[in-house]
Amino acid sequence: MRVAGMPTTMALVCALLAPVAQAVSVATAEHDLIVGKTDHVRVNALTSRKTWVPIDYYSLAFVKPKGGIETDTNLNLGQYLMGDRPENSPYLFRIGEDVSCAVMKEEGEAKTVNKEQIKQFADAIEDGYRINLLYENMDAWTNTDHSGCGFNSTPAFSKGVRVGGCVRDADEEAGTPKQYYLNTHLNIVIKYSTPSGTLDKDGKAPAGKIFVVGLTVGHVSRADGCATAEETAEALHPFTFNTDMESMQVKFSYSVTWQFENKKWASRWDDYVASYEVTESEARYKESIIYSILLGITLAVIVAMIIMRALHIDFNRYNNPDNPEEMQEEVGWKLVHTDVFRPPSHPNRFCGLLGTGVQMLGMCAAALGFSLIGFMSPGMRGILLFMCLFVFAVFAVINGYVCGVFQMSFGCKQWKTPILSGVVYPFFVFLLWSLTEIALASVRGATAEVDFSVFLQLMILWWGISIPLVILGAASAFKQEPMKPPIPYRQMPRPIPPQSWMFSKFSAVLIPGLISFVTFMFVLQQIYMSVWFGRVYILFGYVFVSSVLALITVAETTIVFIYYQLVYEDYRWWWKSFLCGSGIGWYSLLWGLWKLPTWGLGTKIAMWLYVVFVMIGSSMLMLCCGFIGFFVSWTFTRKIYNAIKIE
């Protein structure tokens, strides 16, 4: 069947993928620089681990470039949503040539900062905002982080440098205000290599070509605006200010040092990754993840042995040719064979959930796959987020197909069901995102607040790609013959005996969900720490193994629950199979909210962002694992009822 608008859909796909292709090329292809050419370091949005709201670099009173501010507009959708805003800066230099000290100027030697701007600097320091520099697609990292204002020191290679810090707190008795220092001088160190990996006898690059393999930055607070490369943030901070001042004169300066390092382009992020691996806390969490993997394997083996033994006994009883009377006896799960494949209550809603669940499962599997092949590299800015959104939109065709197949099987074909399955969950996420944008509108200079072009790209993904593909998948399913159950169900449903609370819908979430969550909890905590502390996450091998074990545990615990429910003659397993699988998502939601006070979030907006993050992540787990729970239960029931002899 020809679907109208498909050529247009393909054109939209190509338009959305163009920035991603360029970003991948920039991150992976070696880019040589010409020695002696004038260039500059770019500045990105200021970030904070306390507020988690990125703000524009020039929203504070930093020196602006003489030619005006130029914002990079060739960003992919993921970068826009994450708040990246690379801009030009007055950090000028010639490639390969050191700059001992350069004062950045606008009109005079010093930058005049008024009272309102002083307050903005103080607020940024209180909130722990960091200056993020970019050069050749590499972030600037610092080896130390002397915090102040109640912040603890962080491990080596923290991303960016702090705007400033606290000298002393306010003294109400003495009437002295709180004193701050401002990091007025940045020592920028650019590490480079050459295509040949060597320098000539004069210490110069052969053919005058180099490429960047590292970028570090140190910060110094100096009233005169210049500092030597040997001075660090541990020195005294002579440039101090307080919010009672009417104005102040600031000299912003920088130095640039070029250091040769024999390193390949492909390994230029290795230093930061290695630094991440060796910290004591990360080693401890690796140990915890290994324990959770071993626990998951043990649980999987135990549950598998229990269910296999129970089924072995049942099959020997139901299919025993030496005892015909026992073969004819209908007890346990065999007794409900004429009702077990009866369609569930609210079949259209159930089919919609299955479609959304399989779509989400495909997106999560693709995201993990992208991470394993390097799309989570620090150089791949925003690509993983964009690819998740794009794959989710493309996998809408599977959503529509699965939804349509089970609608046909249940005899409840309705076009509105697959369409709603492609609308309801994205609308839920879109609503949370819109409320977040409203909250960010109150933050001065927030870069995570998006413009109309980003909104348009999201609408293209949703209504231009996802919805047409949902319809295409459903149309394909509606053309097929309905799946027939192994055993036809009778018209009159069999009465269900009173059931224990152990087989209630609440227990379906409570018991299997807890077992599954235990196997995934440590990995989940590591991912949360990576997101909220801005670290380079590299343990995707552990995540992959833990995810597979968690899914195996979800599958096995769901099968055990459904098996014993059928043994006690309750054939209403459809919804409970989905609930059993979704339990891990409910526990993730409760655990995430319980951990809220431990992340040190200092503003209501940061707390709201965290809650939104937890709600979206937990709902994704609910849908993914809910579909897994249903699918294994559906396969399990078809297998066991096909394996027994029914007269």
Explain this structure.
It is a single chain. Residues about 1-5, about 150-155 and about 230-235 have low confidence and may be disordered. Helix 7 (about 345-370) packs across helix 16 (about 605-645), helix 11 runs antiparallel to helix 16 and helix 13 (about 505-530) runs antiparallel to helix 14 (about 540-565). With about 650 residues, the protein is α+β, with helices and mostly antiparallel strands. It is elongated, with a radius of gyration of 30 Å. The two termini are about 45 Å apart. The chain has helices at about 5-30, 75-80, 115-125, 270-280, 280-320, 325-330, 345-370, 385-395, 395-410, 415-420, 425-440, 450-480, 505-530, 540-565, 575-595, 605-645; strands at about 35, 40, 40-45, 90-95, 100-105, 110-115, 130-135, 140, 140, 160, 160, 165-170, 180, 185-195, 210-220, 240, 245-250, 255-260. The longest helix is centred in the C-terminal third of the chain and has 40 residues, at about 605-645. It has a 5-stranded mixed beta sheet with strand order 1-15-14-18-5, with no helix packed on it. Strands 3, 7, 8 and 11 form a 4-stranded antiparallel beta sheet that branches. The chain is about 50% helix and about 15% strand.
